[in-house]
Specification:
This protein has four domains: 132 residues, Response regulator (Rossmann fold, 3-Layer(aba) Sandwich); 165 residues, P-loop containing nucleotide triphosphate hydrolases (Rossmann fold), CATH 3.40.50; 75 residues, Helicase, Ruva Protein, domain 3; 51 residues, Orthogonal Bundle (Arc Repressor Mutant, subunit A), CATH 1.10.10. 43% of the residues lie in helices and 13% in strands. The chain has a five-stranded parallel β-sheet with strand order 2-1-3-4-5, sandwiched between helices. It has a five-stranded parallel β-sheet with strand order 9-12-15-8-16. A two-stranded antiparallel ribbon has the order 6-7.
């Protein structure tokens, strides 16, 4: 998503309640609504003239009671409030606005100002304080500054909402990589453009497709998912487009395909790179025209669907090697979304693990409620070649086989709690993960020759830098990792490797 399309700055501070009545919402400074509370009719006319000349919409009342009644029906963006009113102190009106959480910026105007009064007004939420008499320029600058402050507050609130989300539809996690995914989904969902989701096996590609559908105007229509790797090639065309009776052996009747069932909604084609090259040409024409023929039928049908597809392979590599049509790739790859692997999501690992532990413990009627620190360290140090799916299997294993209040490191299955100097063998369905040992940099090399004075092995220098950063950050490893511009999981793995090297040298 470019920018914050779902959280546009307006004249409404998000931390307060929503306005009531027919308040005009506008991002244009000149159309802001202003309530002037001034008991002097002559001054009210002067101030109103100043403001309407700049295009503001101004309404005027002369008493505190009228101001409160106005606020009950509609809320202005700015309230200019005189402190000396005939029926009650203006400070009482300000306190009511503050205590009720009314979304209105209050500017105090008075001829009897003092430091103490100004301080009290600011304590109850006034954004500025001006003393009479003042000219048009002073009033205009004060109002303009108050509106700018409101917009800035709204923008900050929008950013906080966006970057602090740790749940989004079926996703769990608030890492920066996932926040970027959430924003792209929100931007792409309202359109008809095709979306191409890539990512390693187990990263949640179908969840991503479901989120796109749920955020789209088609959310009330069908979401049909088809796994191209799980269907025999000779049946794939029928699964997508359907068939008529007698189209092939076993076709006992007319059958709707996924395209027909998804009409009006979303068709998700998972593992699209597994599709036979001959069928890819028919899919390309279908995407271009929205028209198709059932297997064995000469008539064309028209449907309105949104295509979302996914693969755990590198689609461009598949194109280069002739297994995937280039024209189909570019037709599908209008909006690409790459899901980050779990090992790059740092603290999301623990957030997801705790969520799964809570849910699975309830399902299995177990007492496990928390992760011990050693167990958390092991989860963070592991490389997770199978991503979220593997983490789910690990937590399920722990919950089924153990009980207690906390998950200890000993409860974790061996691949997760083994020394991390070696990388586990990749899962069979994760083609991006080679079956290799960890890079040599992950384990300190054993020095074999004496070094000249002042030169130490690189891993020792690296260890000193990382440990110093952790110390300066108050033992906050994620913070140290961010400042060092590396992943926190990398630090955990290196610390395990250093500890193992120390034990080996001691032995």
């Amino acid at each position: 998503m470019s920018g914050l399309t779902t959280c546009q700055p307006s004249l409404k501070i998000g931390t307060k309640r929503h306005s009531r009545g027919s308040r005009m919402e506008s991002k244009e400074l000149g159309r802001a609504r202003i309530l002037l509370v001034e008991d002097s009719p002559s001054l009210a006319v002067v101030y109103q003239t100043y403001l309407t000349a700049d295009g503001y919409g101004v309404e005027t009342v002369g008493t505190g009671g009228e101001a409160l009644a106005h606020l009950e029906t509609r809320t202005p963006d700015i309230m200019l409030l005189d402190l000396r009113l005939p029926d009650r102190p203006g400070m009482d009106v300000l306190k009511h606005v503050h205590e009720s959480g009314i979304d209105c910026s209050v500017i105090i105007i008075t001829a009897h100002g003092s430091i103490d009064v100004a301080i009290e007004a600011m304590r109850y939420g006034a954004v500025d304080f001006v003393s009479k008499p003042f000219d048009a320029t002073r009033l205009r600058v004060t109002v303009s500054n108050a509106l700018d402050k409101r917009r800035l507050s709204e923008m900050v609130h929008c950013y906080q909402q966006t970057f602090e989300r740790d749940h989004f539809h079926g996703f769990v996690g608030g890492s920066l990589g996932m926040q970027a995914v959430y924003r792209v989904i929100e931007s792409a969902a309202p359109s008809r453009a095709t979306v191409f989701i890539t990512g390693e096996s187990g990263t949640g590609k179908e969840l991503c497709a479901e989120a796109i559908h749920a955020e789209s105007p088609r959310s009330e229509q069908p979401f049909i998912a088809l796994n191209c790797a799980a269907i025999p090639r000779d049946l794939m065309e029928s699964e997508i487009f359907g068939h008529v009776k007698g189209a092939f052996t076993g076709a006992a009747g007319r059958r709707d395909g996924a395209a027909t069932r998804a009409d009006g909604g979303t068709l998700f084609l998972d593992e699209i790179c597994e599709m036979d090259i001959d069928l890819q040409s028919k899919l390309l024409r279908f995407i271009q025209t929205g028209r198709f023929q059932r297997v064995g039928d000469s008539r064309e049908e028209q449907v309105d669907i949104r295509i979302v597809c996914a693969t755990n392979r590198d689609p461009l590599q598949e194109v280069r090697e002739g297994r995937f049509r280039e024209d189909l790739y570019y037709r599908l790859n209008v909006i690409p979304i790459e899901l980050p692997p779990l090992r790059e999501r740092d603290q999301d690992i623990l957030v997801i693990a705790r969520e799964m532990l809570r849910r699975m413990a309830a399902e299995e009627s177990k007492g496990l409620r928390a992760l011990s620190q050693p167990a958390s360290d092991s989860l963070l140090a592991y490389s997770w070649p199978g991503n979220v799916r593997e983490l789910e299997n690990v937590i399920r294993n722990v919950v089924v086989l153990h009980d207690g209040e906390q998950v200890s490191a000993e409860m974790l299955p061996m691949p997760v709690r083994q020394p991390q100097g070696e990388t586990p063998v990749a899962m069979p369905d994760s083609p991006r993960q080679p079956v290799t040992a960890a890079p040599p940099a992950e384990e300190p090399p054993t020095p074999v020759l004496a070094s000249p004075a002042g030169i130490r092995p690189l891993w020792q220098e690296e260890k000193d830098v990382i440990e110093r950063a952790i110390s300066l950050c108050g033992d906050n490893i994620p913070k140290a990792a961010a400042l060092l511009e590396i992943s926190a999981s990398t630090i955990y793995r290196k610390r395990v490797a250093w500890e193992k090297a120390g034990q080996d040298s001691a032995g």
